[in-house]
Amino acid sequence: MRYKVLFLLALLIGTILVAPVSAQEPPYPPGYPTATGDWGFWNGNELLSANQWYQMGYVAGAFDALLAVVVQARWNMTLFKLISEDPGDRPFRYTIDTITYAFEYVPENITLGQLHAVVMKYLNEHPQSTHNSAALLVWRALAETEWE
What we know:
Elements: H1 2-18, H2 44-49, H3 52-80, H4 90-104, H5 112-125, H6 134-144
Helix pairs in contact: 1-3, 3-4, 3-5, 4-6, 5-6
């Protein structure tokens, strides 16, 4: 139970760091899309419409947040040996395994510019998916890219 709480806490913190959240909308500079639809989340269309620097910041934040979840989950599983056969743990384990899969083949020395290019290429090649959460699309770009 404790590792589920830690996972949810890490996911919540990551979401807060990734999503542009504000009680009152400040005067954003030109090229900065405001969140529409779901509270505080960008979708792929909003990410595509942002200028390059905002795109890179969002991609870096989403990447770091997802990686933090993977690192924390691996640490918890190693430290507490949380390999459970409890059917209630299966969705949690599947989610962690799925998120982890996206990071297995990402080169360790990847630059932010390369990461940004991979995500933008994915968004441009999958316009039918750009209504989805931008963070989800960053993960899909990582998971579906054939890394060299």
